[in-house]
Amino acid sequence: MSQEQIYESAGFGRTVPRGSSPAIVVVDFSYGFTDPQYPTASDAHEQMRRTRAICDLARDKGFPVIFTTIAYHPGEVDKLPWLKKATGMAALTEGTRLVEINAATGIQPEDAIVTKKGASSFFGSTLSALLTGAKVDTLVVTGATTSGCVRATVVDAVQAGFNVLVPADCCADRAQAPHEANLYDMNQKYADVTDANEVMDWLRNLSMSGI
């Protein structure tokens, strides 16, 4: 059996339902993850450009746009196990440019920013409360990195009861192999992996009746 047949026979890869009350969650498009001068970053110029177009359309339609960033207090750095494994993340400290959302995303003053300490945008944050308060049923997840914080956010989103869409051309990673492998796995198990144009076509056809 081919790989596709194995997943098909196991019941994976089905299309997820799409609701009528979406939100855009932009994961960690901060300077620390998008400005190549920093070791933790990848080149996300095109991914941010396409994400910006999705966010602009979502705002025009009245749908929530939420950004996330990782930011540590200096007193946390030597106490968190993740920072012993991924030591480069320790540079993402509060008040530095690295934790600011990259202006290339087109972030607006009305967009919520969720600060997190780990990979998932849901863990230990206000994201679930924000989405519940906005009566959201479907998430569009973009950001960095595909194999890390994007994937962790997508898995937790499904477990929190949301339908999830992932535009692949709006996600960035430091290497192509983990990027592609995690997109494949998310598409089989957790989300519909699609692209920016398809997401925008879907958003254009939604009314505000679901919120």
TrEMBL record:
InterPro entries: Isochorismatase-like_dom (IPR000868), Isochorismatase-like_hydrls (IPR050272), Isochorismatase-like_sf (IPR036380). The keyword Hydrolase applies. Residues 23-198 form the Isochorismatase-like domain. Keywords: Hydrolase. This is Isochorismatase family protein.
